[in-house]
Amino acid sequence: MWGWDAGSDAELVYSINQGGKWSAPQKVADIDWGKPGLPSIEVDMAGNFHVVWNQGVRGKNEIYYARLENPK
User: Fold this and answer.
1) What's residue 72's pLDDT?
2) Beta bridge partners of 36
3) pTM score above 0.85
4) What is residue 36's predicted lDDT score, i.e. its pLDDT?
5) Rounded CA gap, 40 and 46, in Å?
6) How far apart are CA 72 and CA 55, in angstroms?
7) pLDDT tens profile 15-62
8) What are phi and psi of 42, to 5 degrees?
9) Cα dist. 66→16, 17, 45, 58, 69 in Å?
10) Contacts for 43-46 with beta carbons within 8 Å, 24 or more apart?
11) Parallel, antiparallel, or unpaired: how do β-strands 26-27 and 21-22 relate?
């Protein structure tokens, strides 16, 4: 999980390693403003990821949450 700084399309992205191969990066969410940072990740018993992060610009940040399903 990392912050992808692509100018106006900066978002939090993730990739999953399955069997020694990383998946292509995917967006956690389409917020469409600010820059992402400080992600915290928890995995539940079903293997789903729960992500909380902040996103915004200097002086104005919001907290976001996303649930990423287990890719099985």
Assistant:
1) 73
2) 55
3) no
4) 92
5) 18
6) 29
7) 988 889 999 999 999 998 889 988 999 999 999 999 999 999 889 999
8) -130, 145
9) 16, 19, 17, 23, 10
10) 46/70
11) unpaired
